[in-house]
Design goal:
The complex is a heterodimer of chains A (668) and B (181). By secondary structure, chain A is of the alpha+beta class. Chain A is 40% helix and 13% strand. In chain A, helix 17 crosses helix 20 (511-531) and helix 20 (511-531) crosses helix 22. Chain B has a domain at 22-144. In chain B, a hairpin with a 4-residue loop joins strand 3 and strand 4 (59-64). Chain B is elongated. Classes of the chains: A alpha+beta (668), B alpha+beta (181). Chain A binds chain B through residues 69-71, 73, 98, 105, 144, 148, 157-158, 180-181, 205-211, 214-215, 217-218, 225, 228-229, 232, 294-303, 305, 309, 316-319, and chain B through 21-25, 28-29, 32, 35, 37-46, 53-58, 60, 87, 105, 129-133. Strand 13 (209-210) of chain A pairs antiparallel with strand 2 (41-42) of chain B, so a sheet runs across the interface. Bound molecules: iron/sulfur cluster (3 copies).
């Protein structure tokens, strides 16, 4: 009997049209839990480093998290993993919504796609009945449209559908996979789905999910619900509204956008507009949102309502969440009405709402600079908003200049040349980032930006406050009931952290303290990505209901696996190292681990080198960021060490963490 | 003729469809509560509540499972409220042959909401407890009701006998029997 998980994966070979239901090894659950952990294991075992993202041998894995489908509140993530066409590294975007729980109810933990179909198809999973169906009539259809058409033709109004749009079909490097109110957007996984000729996966299930120790498990779930109520009544004082509560940042509810509009950068992540948020703008934008937002909506088994249905007059209704509210608006230097309107089209096309607006702003900047000229933009309208629509249409169809832009700013710049590289300035590991340009280097964020392999800051930052609280009293007040913090040391770092003076950034928290803080925040994300827990209730917000002290019992009660805090930390470390191993084997090294050069104005090369050196050592990695043989063995990843030795990635005798500073050349 | 007065507890779940966010927590927890042993499994398809849910049309209707219907209705209903067109039978509580809701997915046996009856009783039904959106609000009230049911039963019984034997024969028999007593 398997608990929490179903114990079966669905293996689909699109080349041969073959479908198999395969029992999984329970020992893998004990070692890697599920979700991202077991995805990484599968990619390591089955996708050698020379496999190109658009090769039939690349796998596209749709995984549920280990606890998805259990009553654990907010546990509903689909973790999609593959090799990214944009970064050439492992991509593992997550989406909320309803798809993963439905897959569990259908009796599967993962759907593993390999091969390529010559014609466009979709997969229909209805409990034990699984079929590959023709999707030629869905070609060019929008993501929401596709889901509706599939539900109608199957006569299954409750089927959950994950689909790509035109962008995915045309292998746009930042194509997303959309699923109603949620999407797996980062890393261009939609392009891999399109490359495989897979338009959508529809799923419907009617089976039971079992719990090993029901009473204990339910008591914890009820505690979580109670804590959510407490936090709802008690927003954290002293931080901006979007950070005060739980859930994904409540962008659909909170109208006050002073912080985003004045601190984030507009255009091609260039301009900060101090004083932008006037009373008139506030009124106008609030009016726009209130008139277009039909309802606030939640993911499966979660009360947080982080998304909304948006109905722009004259356009079909769609669903939106998080910061996609502002990315188009700010890239185009326009207003919220434009942002909500173009997002409708972008959602149907299925593109990432971080990358897509930035790519378009980048193109227009190159045009202004004369690097791209009129000949690249035949027929482009002259108005700003019109240009964005025009570019979006060309990109998703890969027409003209759109074909180059569809590869993202990094590759497009390389192809355009002529100094264009300077304009692809907001990337990490070739991937577009949040448009944020700040002054003073923050050591915590420096490490997270540099070493995070989700290559997306919101997927690694979390439970430690983003900025110090001004007074000691406020800090003590915050720390009083800070049960989530893993140890007293980290609490102390926070208590002593000040906005100015000796105890402020960049030299405080100190290097060792910074390593501990970053490691904690990252660990929480790796746990969530294995269990399928929404970061919005766990690794992301301040004082979440799930934390390192209650998660081991929750996982243990659900699955029956013996697990304590140390055990869970060990699994998180194992998964973290396995993801890194996949990327190391694909060539990622220290030189790739750096924030966008202009992210901070004030940089400290020596401190940065020390931070990276120390963090690598702390993690058990050598000076290149490669996990050492010793640390791999400690994590039962001896097979990774053996492979590294065989490939010469690690050499006998030189795998001890180096104390030398060898990264200086990259830091200037 | 008046029956005796007695007190009755009326249990109501007030459903505010405007507050529903479509999370399906109610379905999940209902099925977990009714699993044997309790909470040992869950499966929304076994829930005694179902959220009719179509976000693009802004349709959110939590419906509780009611009586089993051996045959489907002679006709169907289709509502339009505030310009929103609801599918046929959206508001119906019956476990009915025309559709696959409110039936155990494996055996097909009908499901019916029992207001989470249990010993000791819950403070509120589980679906209500887990709906943090307050779309489901539980209310209990006491009502004075006439003791009509016993009366009704006699009438039904008599009616049946009358149709079998005829009223005259029935009245004669009743008269004869009451003289004896
Ligand atoms: S917190 Fe928000 S994003 Fe997370 S599961 Fe709940 S509704 Fe979805
Ligand atoms: S729990 Fe409440 S909000 Fe969620 S679907 Fe049920 S009725 Fe709607
Ligand atoms: S009242 Fe109880 S039995 Fe009825 S639907 Fe709600 S949880 Fe299920």
């Amino acid at each position: 009997m398997r608990y929490a998980e179903t114990g079966f994966n669905l293996e689909v070979d699109l080349t041969r049209g073959n479908i198999e239901r395969v029992a999984t090894d329970p020992r893998l659950t004990e070692l890697y839990l599920g979700g991202l952990g077991t995805n990484a294991k599968i990619l390591w075992d089955r996708v050698p480093p020379d496999v190109e993202p658009f090769s039939p041998d690349n796998l596209l894995i749709f995984s549920t998290g280990l606890l998805v489908g259990t009553p654990a509140v907010g546990c509903n993530r689909t973790i999609v993993s593959t090799i990214s066409p944009q970064t050439q590294l492992m991509a593992f975007s997550m989406m909320g919504g309803f798809w993963a729980p439905e897959l569990k109810y259908a009796g599967y933990d993962k759907v593993i796609i390999r091969g390529k179909s010559s014609d466009l198809v979709y997969l229909w999973i209805n409990d034990d009945k699984v079929e590959i169906r023709d999707a030629s009539h869905l070609q060019g259809k929008g993501t929401t449209e596709t889901a509706e058409l599939i539900r109608a033709e199957l006569k299954e109004p409750n089927a959950q559908v994950s689909a790509i749009g035109t962008a995915g079909e045309n292998r746009v490097y930042f194509a997303s996979i959309e699923q109603g109110k949620s999407s797996a957007s980062r890393g261009g996984i939609g392009a891999v789905m399109g490359d495989k000729g897979l338009k959508a996966i529809a799923v419907r299930g009617s089976k039971d999910i079992f719990i090993a120790r029901p009473e204990e498990f339910m008591a914890l779930c009820n505690e979580v619900l109670e804590y959510i109520k407490v936090r709802r009544e008690n927003p954290i004082p002293g931080v901006m509204p979007i950070l005060a509560g739980l859930g994904s940042p409540q962008e659909m509810v909170i109208h006050d956008e002073k912080w985003h509009t004045e601190n984030f950068a507009w255009g091609n992540s260039r301009v900060r507009r101090k004083g932008f948020w006037t009373k008139e703008v506030a009124e106008q934008w609030t009016g726009t949102m209130e008139s277009m937002r039909t309802r606030l909506i939640s993911c499966h088994n979660c009360p947080m309502k982080c998304a909304a249905t948006i109905s722009v007059p004259g356009l079909p209704t769609y669903m939106m969440k998080c910061f996609s509210k502002l990315t188009y608006t700010m890239a185009a230097m326009s207003d919220l009405e434009f942002g909500l309107s173009i997002a409708q089209r972008a959602t149907e096309y299925g593109v990432d709402a971080f990358s897509a607006p930035q790519v378009m702003a980048f193109a227009l900047e190159l045009y202004e600079a004369g690097i791209l000229t009129d000949q690249h933009f035949p027929g482009m309208p002259s108005d700003n908003e019109g240009r964005f629509y025009w570019l979006l249409d060309r990109i998703v169809r890969r027409e003209g200049i759109g074909d180059i832009l569809a590869n993202g700013t990094h590759w497009a710049a390389e192809q355009i040349g002529n100094g264009a590289e300077e304009y692809a300035h907001n990337n990490i590991k070739k991937h577009e980032q949040l448009p944020l340009k700040l002054s003073m280097l923050n050591p915590i964020y420096f490490l997270m930006y540099s070493t995070g392999e989700k290559i997306n800051i919101t997927q690694i930052e979390g439970n430690f406050p983003q900025a110090p609280f001004v007074t000691r009293e406020e800090r003590e007040e915050f720390a009083k009931d800070w049960i989530q913090v893993p140890n007293e040391k980290i609490k102390q770092h926070f208590l002593d952290w000040e906005p100015r003076g000796e105890h402020s950034i960049p030299h405080y928290p100190g290097v060792d303290a910074t390593c501990e803080i970053v490691d904690w925040q990252e660990m929480m994300h790796y746990i969530d990505d294995a269990t399928g827990m929404c970061a919005g209730l766990s690794s992301f917000p301040l004082k979440p209901p799930y934390h390192i002290h209650n998660l081991p019992t929750l996982i243990s009660a659900a699955t029956g696996i013996d697990l304590d805090e140390e055990g869970l930390k060990q699994i998180a470390r194992r998964n973290r190292n396995l993801v890194r191993a996949v990327n190391i084997r694909r060539g990622m090294r220290r030189k790739d681990e750096k924030p966008p050069a202009d992210h901070w104005k004030k940089r400290f090369p020596e401190l940065e080198t020390e931070l990276i050196d120390t963090y690598y050592r702390f993690k058990g990695w050598n000076e290149q960021g490669i996990p050492t043989r010793e640390s791999l063995r400690e994590l039962s990843l001896g097979y990774v060490a053996a492979d590294f030795l065989k490939r010469g990635i690690l050499a006998d005798g030189e795998d001890a963490p180096s104390r030398e500073t060898s990264g200086q050349e990259e830091e200037t | 003729m008046k029956g005796e007065q007695r007190k009755k507890i009326v249990k109501t779940i007030k459903i505010d469809v405007d507050k529903c966010n479509g999370c399906r927590a109610c379905e999940l927890i209902c099925s977990a509560f009714h699993a044997a042993p309790q909470y040992s499994s869950n499966n929304p398809r076994r829930a005694r509540i179902r959220v009719v849910h179509d976000p693009l049309r802004d349709i959110y209707v939590p419906v509780y499972a009611g009586e089993y219907a051996a045959a489907e209705c002679a006709g169907r209903d289709k509502y339009t409220i505030d310009g929103k067109e609801y599918d046929e039978c959206s508001f119906c509580r019956a476990s009915c042959p025309s559709r696959d809701v409110f039936k155990e997915p494996d055996s097909g046996l009908p499901l019916k909401c029992d207001m989470c009856e249990s010993e000791p009783p819950l403070s509120e039904p589980m679906c209500v407890q887990w709906c943090l959106a307050d779309a489901l609000i539980y209310e209990e009230r006491e009502e004075e009701v006439e003791e009509e049911e016993a009366q009704e039963e006699i009438e039904i019984g008599l009616e049946a006998m009358a149709s079998k034997h005829g009223w005259q024969k029935l009245l004669d028999t009743a008269a004869r029997m009451s003289r004896k007593g």
